[in-house]
Amino acid sequence: MYVVEDKGGAIALMLAALLFLGTWPAVLTLLERRGRLPQHTYLDYSITNLLAAVLIALTFGQIGDGKPNMPNFLTQLTQDNWPSILFAMAGGVVLSLGNLATQYAWAYVGLSVTEVITSSITVVIGTTMNYFLDDRINRAEILFPGVGCFLIAVCLGSAVHSSNAADNEEKLSGSSSNYKCEKEPVEETKDGAINKVVLKDLEDAAVHDSASNIKAESAKFGTAEFLLELERRRSIKVLGSSTFIGLGIVFFAGVCFSLFSPAFNLATNDQWHTLKEGVPHLVVYTAFFYFSVSCFVVAIALNISFLYNPVLGLPKSSFKAYLNDWSGRHWALLAGLLCGFGNGFQFMGGQAAGYAAADAVQTVVGIMKQALPLVSTFWGILLFGEYRKSSRRTYVLLVGMLSMFIVAVGVLMASSGHRKTS
């Protein structure tokens, strides 16, 4: 299998992972804002996400000759390593549930706050569990103050969401527009296909008539008119909803994400000694393949169910309607590839940092892994205009949340740079 063993290669892989994993959430958010059903989008995303894992396993996982302790991907498929496979697949289940939940959380809470809160929860729970799984090799006196900073970031993120929701209510109550949140009218045909009344798309001027273009251009980011136009077009209706709905989804996603890292850790390192003597640990390519397969199975099963039994007030659809829905499909497929290759490169970069055996390399790689929410925040603010024309209180909380998150990342990386030697 292919192993990167130098600092430059590890950092290059993590930079690519940073860009890919920070961008695919923005792509799915854009599709939801343009009215595509999240069930349709996630089914497309899941296909290419699995495809990326298969391609990485069959290429990087097969390059060169295998070693007794690091067999190639196809060789390891025939070995008796089911305990580790089950850990990897368990990690895939919780990761799939987390990704699925965040697709709804982005609509309710926003891309920026969702990514920071879920990442912070992931670190708080996942880092604590990995601390004990890895025989406490990080300095607790540095590690756990960093975990405390992440907890503060979670609290500030919740406050940002509540403050922004209050700002939106104030904007809408003072708007001359008729504030009435209604779901898009739908008509279900005999075969179960959904014929939606196409509303004006604020973000895609190509499908607007001239009158709608004028209206869209006059609705600036952050105004009541913008919020109303966005609500009419998007697939998940959020205006007027309780703040606890969005935060509940975000916290559920964060807990799911936090369980993934310890499961993957157990799958590749076998700290509980579940493998038979002489059976090598799963290499990252094999573990990545198995967890991607379980991700795919869970995503397909749940989203096909959600087509006929939707959640959060979404309209019913059908598998036939999904197959016929080509609007934005190429973007959903691209998002799956970005996430799949991003995860693969992240694992390869982390593996390379381990083989480089240099604290500086491990620190740089770790910082880039934790910087993913900052990339998503960039897209959220730049592309979607999140928190435009918000109150000073919201801005102060937002800056505080991001600042505390950055401080927490720095403290956490300092703990990895001061590992115990005995």
From TrEMBL:
<protein>
    <recommendedName>
        <fullName>Ureide permease 2</fullName>
    </recommendedName>
</protein>
<feature type="transmembrane region" description="Helical">
    <location>
        <begin position="360"/>
        <end position="383"/>
    </location>
</feature>
<dbReference type="GO" id="GO:0005524">
    <property type="term" value="F:ATP binding"/>
</dbReference>
<keyword id="KW-0812">Transmembrane</keyword>
<feature type="transmembrane region" description="Helical">
    <location>
        <begin position="142"/>
        <end position="161"/>
    </location>
</feature>
<keyword id="KW-0472">Membrane</keyword>
<keyword id="KW-1133">Transmembrane helix</keyword>
<keyword id="KW-0813">Transport</keyword>
<dbReference type="GO" id="GO:0005274">
    <property type="term" value="F:allantoin:proton symporter activity"/>
</dbReference>
<comment type="similarity">
    <text>Belongs to the plant ureide permease (TC 2.A.7.19) family.</text>
</comment>
<keyword id="KW-0067">ATP-binding</keyword>
<feature type="transmembrane region" description="Helical">
    <location>
        <begin position="43"/>
        <end position="64"/>
    </location>
</feature>
<dbReference type="GO" id="GO:0015505">
    <property type="term" value="F:uracil:monoatomic cation symporter activity"/>
</dbReference>
<feature type="transmembrane region" description="Helical">
    <location>
        <begin position="84"/>
        <end position="101"/>
    </location>
</feature>
<dbReference type="GO" id="GO:0016020">
    <property type="term" value="C:membrane"/>
</dbReference>
<keyword id="KW-0547">Nucleotide-binding</keyword>
<feature type="transmembrane region" description="Helical">
    <location>
        <begin position="238"/>
        <end position="262"/>
    </location>
</feature>
<dbReference type="InterPro" id="IPR030189">
    <property type="entry name" value="UPS_plant"/>
</dbReference>
<feature type="transmembrane region" description="Helical">
    <location>
        <begin position="330"/>
        <end position="348"/>
    </location>
</feature>
<feature type="transmembrane region" description="Helical">
    <location>
        <begin position="12"/>
        <end position="31"/>
    </location>
</feature>
<feature type="transmembrane region" description="Helical">
    <location>
        <begin position="282"/>
        <end position="309"/>
    </location>
</feature>
<dbReference type="InterPro" id="IPR009834">
    <property type="entry name" value="Ureide_permease"/>
</dbReference>
<dbReference type="Pfam" id="PF07168">
    <property type="entry name" value="Ureide_permease"/>
</dbReference>
<feature type="transmembrane region" description="Helical">
    <location>
        <begin position="108"/>
        <end position="130"/>
    </location>
</feature>
<feature type="transmembrane region" description="Helical">
    <location>
        <begin position="395"/>
        <end position="414"/>
    </location>
</feature>
